[in-house]
Amino acid sequence: MCNQYTPAKPRAIADLFDVPEPAFDYPARAYKGYKAPMLRRPHSGTGLVAEEGHFALVPFFAPAIKLQYDTLNARTETIATAASYRGPWKRRQFCLIPMHTFTEPNYESGKSQWWDVYRRDGKAFAVAGLYDRWTSPEGEIYWSFTLPTINSDQHPLMNRFHKPGKEKRSIVVLPPSAYDTWLDAKTDEDARSVFQLFDERQFDAGPVPAAPARADSAPGQLQV
User: Fold this and answer.
1) Beta strands 173-174 and 125-135: pairing type?
2) Any idea what DSSP says for residue 14?
C-alpha cells in the first residue's frame, strides 16, 4: 500500500508522456487529499490530459469530499465490487499517476522508518490509478484517484515493508508497454492483465533523510 509519494515534476511528465507540462501547482509530496497530476484519456479517446487530481478517491455519490473511510488504495481483489470503486471500474476510469518516488514503512531496524522506493536510473515512472469526478452543489469539480494494490509477499523489494507478520502489498508500477493496455482496457480481463509486480532490478529503496512533513490541511482542497 502507499499513503504518500513524490509526484513527478512538470518537466519530467512532459518528457515521459509527450504532453504539455501541468498548468497547475502541486506540493512536492502528496498525502491524502493533496493535489497531484493524473493522466487520463480525453473524451476523444486519444492522447493524454494532465488533470489536477487529488490523492484519495472521492466517489461521485459522496455527500462531501471529506470521507469517513480511507480510499488512498484499492485492493485489486475487490476493486470491481467495493462500493467506492465499482462505478469508476465499470466505467473504465483508468489513469496514470506519475511519480519520482513512493514511500513505505520499513521495520528492519526494529521500529518503523519511512523508506523511499525509486528507479535506479533516477527517472520518473507511472503507476496505475483509478479516478472519479465529484461535483459540489455549487458545480465545482473535484477530480480524485486511488492507487490499486496487489499482494507482494514474494517480491524481493516490496516484501521488506509494512509490519512484520502482515500481508505485504504494492502499488502497480507500469512499464511503458502497459500504459495503453491499462488506459484503453475494455474488459476486466484486459485491465487485470497489468496487475503485476514490477521488476525489482530496476528499483531500489532507502531511508528518507528526514521525516516527511504533512500539513494539517491539504493544499487546493475544495471547501464544501
Assistant:
1) antiparallel
2) H
Query: Is 141:54 a contact under the CB 8 Å cutoff?
Result: no
Q: Quickly list DSSP for 129-176.
A: EEEEEEE-TT--EEEEEEEEEEE-TT-TTGGGBSSTTSPPEEE-EEPG
* Separation of CA 83 from chain center: 19
Q: Which residues of 5-43 are buried (b: 16+ CB within 10 A; e: fewer)?
A: bbbbbbebbeebbebeebeeebbebbbbbbbbbbbbbee
pLDDT digits (tens, 9 = 90+) for 118-139: 999 999 999 999 999 999 999 9
Q: Which three cell numbers stand for residue 5?
A: 509519494
Say how far apart CA 102 and CA 171 lie, in whole Å. 9
Q: Read off the pLDDT of residues 31-40 as tens digits, 9 standing for 90 and up.
A: 999 999 999 9
Q: Which residues does 69 contact at the CB level (< 8 Å), separation at least 6?
A: 84
Write the CB contacts of 40 (distance below 8 Å, at least 6 apart in sequence).
48, 49, 51, 93, 94, 95, 96, 131, 183
Stated as kind and residue range, the H or E segment containing 113 is strand 113-119
Cβ neighbors of 77 (< 8 A, separation 6 or more) are: none
**Cα–Cα distance for residue pair 135/91, rounded to 1 Å:** 17
Q: Rounded to the nearest 5°, which phi and psi values hold at 89?
A: -65, -45
Question: How far apart (Å, rounded) are the C-alpha atoms in residues 59 and 65?
Answer: 8
Residues 6+ apart with CB under 8 A from 109: none
